[in-house]
Specification:
The complex is a heterodimer of chains A (120) and B (460).
Chain A: E1 3-7, H1 11-23, E2 27-31, H2 34-43, E3 48-52, H3 61-72, E4 78-82, E5 101-104, H4 109-119
Parallel strand pairs in A: 1-2, 1-3, 3-4, 4-5
Chain B: H1 6-41, H2 50-75, H3 81-104, H4 116-127, H5 130-152, H6 170-245, H7 254-285, E1 290-291, E2 294-297, H8 298-315, E3 319-323, E4 329-332, H9 334-350, E5 357-365, E6 368-375, H10 396-401, H11 409-419, E7 423-429, E8 433-441, E9 447-448
Parallel strand pairs in B: 3-5
Antiparallel strand pairs in B: 1-9, 2-4, 5-6, 6-8, 7-8
Helix pairs in contact in B: 1-2, 1-3, 2-3, 4-6, 5-6, 6-7, 7-11, 8-9, 9-11
Classes of the chains: A alpha/beta (120), B alpha+beta (460).
Chain lengths: 120, 460
């Protein structure tokens, strides 16, 4: 069974996205801080990571975490959640951030599954 | 190279204009003086120093030729403000001296041309600091005063204007000198004080404007933050709906399901409204920041935007079609182009009834990329077509069809199009459908995010 790691500070998001993914037959791990998430990637590597951008302690913490994850294992597929369609405040685009896909919140399961299937 | 603020650069432009104006004025003056000399030569009332006066006129002509040569040659290059100022000061000083020579050799106090100095003072005070104007005026008064004094003491000769010299008593000379000096001094004083008042007003206005702008910015930032905060919980609610609808929480009854679907639809609408408000507030809050541009594949932009609305189109049984040449590229800002196409597509689908068509077509037209978003929807009636780009405006039919909506979508599109230096045209017929034509330049290097205060309302 393929394992997906969700890193998000919002526990409700973890619950909804997590249970929807479990329902689709994936194994789901979760972390509520990026530090915890990085530990988990190192200890028990997942097949794919879903990462939130905004964390309570820093607005763009997810971006830093994305670089760290990709530095650790470039091959690991990394999807980034964006709370709004366009994260203007950071002027970001796929070239700047080391992520494979950008997923809009709220997450629509069908589209998420489609994207996941392209990677694992 | 120092960057000029808008106010400085406009002063800079006006200085350029004044220099051109002065060059023309000098030609007029030379022609005038030459004509007067010619006329007086054949009239016996005058007794002029033709040689000296002609020489002075020729000097003015040759100097003016040099000035215009330099001016037109260097106008094309970017001259520093300081250099232009020095160039102009040289001109002003030479004008003063030549006018003085001209007047001195043609009757001095008797020559009405002496009053022309007051014009000079007025113009100088519009362009230079009050210190420089005071200096010029003081020097001029001192020069005029000492010339009359030396003429009175017979140290330097008097060049009368007329054959029959008007008998001038020393006391009349003194009064004339005093009068002219007073005129020049008062002119300088008055113009300087008027200009200082205007400057003070301008500065005060600028302060007020900045205050207003920063307040507006605070407000927009507040909206941006609040809407951002609202988005998180709504995303979670939407996720819970999906859990229930997928049956993860267990079997649900049909009626419950239909209720949850309704709740989910309203949640989605709310998310869209919040998205629009974020776009709008963002555009208002960051008027000072510039956006970055990238080389983008038009095909890719289109397919991303289409995939964002596919589910919605399916839900509403609206047929989507796309056409775009393979290798079309555009250098622009991806956020803003997505705002434009996303909003137009979203509207087209929203206002098209089941069974209708929505199409997005892109093509190259000269140096522009031409996007057309066309639908067979409700359309916009003639009276309302102008207003659809207004903030918070929603057409009557739109309000009937869809209760939730901000009326910001097209206002945002308009702002984004303006920011990308493009234009938008809408054709529509009520009941038949609408087509939005967006023309965007193939290449823009960088630009400013549209600010609230200077965003024009171009309604085509």
């Amino acid at each position: 069974m393929q394992k997906i790691l969700i890193i998000d500070d919002d526990e409700d998001i973890i619950e909804t996205v997590g249970s929807l993914l479990k329902f689709e037959g994936y194994k789901v791990d979760f972390a509520t801080t990026t530090e915890e998430g990085l530990e988990m990637i190192k200890d028990s590597p997942p097949d794919l990571v879903l990462l939130d951008i905004m964390f309570p302690d820093k607005k763009t913490k997810g971006f830093d975490a994305a670089s760290e994850i990709k530095d650790f294992n470039f091959e690991l597929p990394l999807f980034v959640f964006t709370a709004i369609n366009r994260e203007y405040a950071f002027d970001f685009s796929k070239d700047d951030i080391k992520a494979d896909e950008f997923i809009n919140k709220p997450v629509k399961l069908d589209r998420l599954i489609d994207k996941i299937k392209q990677y694992i | 190279m120092q960057r000029l603020s808008p106010i400085e650069s406009s002063a800079f432009k006006s200085l350029n204009k004044v220099i051109t104006w002065f060059i023309i004025l000098r030609w007029v003056a030379c022609t005038g003086v030459a004509l007067v000399l010619l006329f007086s030569y054949y009239s016996f009332h005058f007794k002029l120093q033709y040689k000296i006066l002609s020489a002075t006129t020729l000097t003015v002509i040759s100097l003016n030729l040099i000035y215009s040569y330099y001016f037109y040659r260097y106008k094309k290059q970017f001259l520093q403000r300081r250099e232009i100022h020095i160039f102009f000061q040289i001109q002003i000083i030479s004008d003063y001296l030549l006018l003085l020579i001209l007047v001195y050799f043609s009757g001095f106090m008797d020559n009405p041309l002496i009053f022309f100095f007051s014009f000079h003072i007025i113009i100088t005070s519009f362009l230079f600091t009050s210190g420089i104007v005071t200096l010029y005026t003081t020097l001029l008064i001192a020069l005029i005063g000492s010339i009359s004094l030396f003429q009175y003491l017979k140290i330097i000769p008097v060049f009368p204007l007329f054959v029959e010299s008007i008998t001038t008593t020393p006391i009349l000379r003194l009064t004339q000198t005093f009068g002219i000096s007073a005129l020049l001094a008062i002119t300088a004083y008055l113009t300087i004080s008027i200009i200082n008042k205007i400057d003070a007003r301008g500065k005060q206005f600028e302060v007020e404007l900045n205050k207003y702008k920063s307040l507006d910015k605070i407000k927009s930032n507040f909206i941006l933050q609040v809407t951002h905060e609202l988005r998180g919980p709504l995303a979670a609610i939407s996720g819970f709906h999906e859990m229930i609808l997928r049956g993860i929480t267990g079997e649900i009854e049909e009626y419950t399901k239909s209720i949850i679907i309704k709740a989910d639809r309203r949640t989605d609408n709310l998310l869209i409204i919040i998205g629009e408000m974020i776009d709008f507030a963002y555009m208002k809050s960051s008027d000072d920041s510039t956006f970055i541009t990238r080389e983008l594949s038009v095909r890719k932009i289109i397919s991303e935007n289409i995939s964002n609305v596919t589910t919605r189109a399916q839900q509403g049984s609206v047929h989507l079609s796309v056409a775009c040449p393979k290798h079309l590229e555009i250098r622009t800002n991806s956020d803003l182009i997505n705002i434009i196409l996303g909003n137009l597509l979203f509207n087209a689908i929203k206002y098209t009834e089941a069974g209708g068509n929505v199409s997005l077509i892109a093509s190259e037209k000269g140096n522009e990329i031409h996007f057309v978003v066309e639908d067979t929807g409700i359309g916009i009636c003639e009276e309302e077509i102008e207003k659809v780009f207004y903030e918070f405006y929603r057409s009557r039919r739109a309000r009937e069809l869809e209760k939730d909506g901000t009326g910001l979508g097209l206002a945002i599109v308009q702002k984004a199009v303006n920011a990308l230096q493009g234009r938008i045209i809408v054709y529509s017929k009520e009941g038949k459908g609408s087509s939005f034509h967006v023309f965007l330049p193939e290449y823009i290097d960088t630009g400013k995010i549209p600010g609230g205060e200077n965003a024009e309302n171009i309604n085509n």
